[in-house]
What we know:
Layout: E1 3-4, E2 14-15, H1 28-38, E3 46-49, H2 56-63, E4 68-73, H3 76-89, E5 95-99, H4 102-107, E6 114-119, H5 127-137, E7 142-152, E8 165-173, E9 176-183
Parallel strand pairs: 3-4, 3-6, 4-5, 6-7
Antiparallel strand pairs: 1-2, 7-9, 8-9
Amino acid sequence: MSLxxxxxxxxxxxxxSVPGDSTRAITDRVKESLFNILGSDIKGTILWDLFGGTGxxxxxxxxxxxxFVYFLDRSWDAIKTxxxxxxxxxxxxxxxxxxxxxxxxxxxxxxxKFDYIFIAPPQYQELWLKALRAIDDNIGWMNENAxxxxxxHPREYQSLSLQNLNEFDQRKYGSxxxxxxxxxxxx
Length: 187
């Protein structure tokens, strides 16, 4: 699959894929739909691409005006791919790439807050559930009006009972489901 930046300062730039089949790249159709939902709200935000992969979602966010993206992946091939894609798109100044395990990181005391946390882990391993529960248990990673956005295959979906996060939307695009969560507001 050919990856590219759809809009913004790096529009049209091709992105490298991670070698092998360890990552599942987001299609342009899904990525465009996601950023149509986020709209101009992405400008000036801080995003965490929790399972960075190719970096396509975070790079798209930067290209569209996000202030900063934190990329995390435990695969060195993914880290090298993200670094190469950031250099190619000239967006390295607004990004940090960290090699590490998402669950180890999520268990730590938060050292920053995010407006968006994007979760697209390897499929069919219930890693998205584990990550979502970890964020729910350590909600300090999120700013006040922050969202968590999960990308899974529709067959992976299951409804969850969470303390601090509330599912508020779902969008299905063929074999991809985007699920949106926001911080629960005390009412």
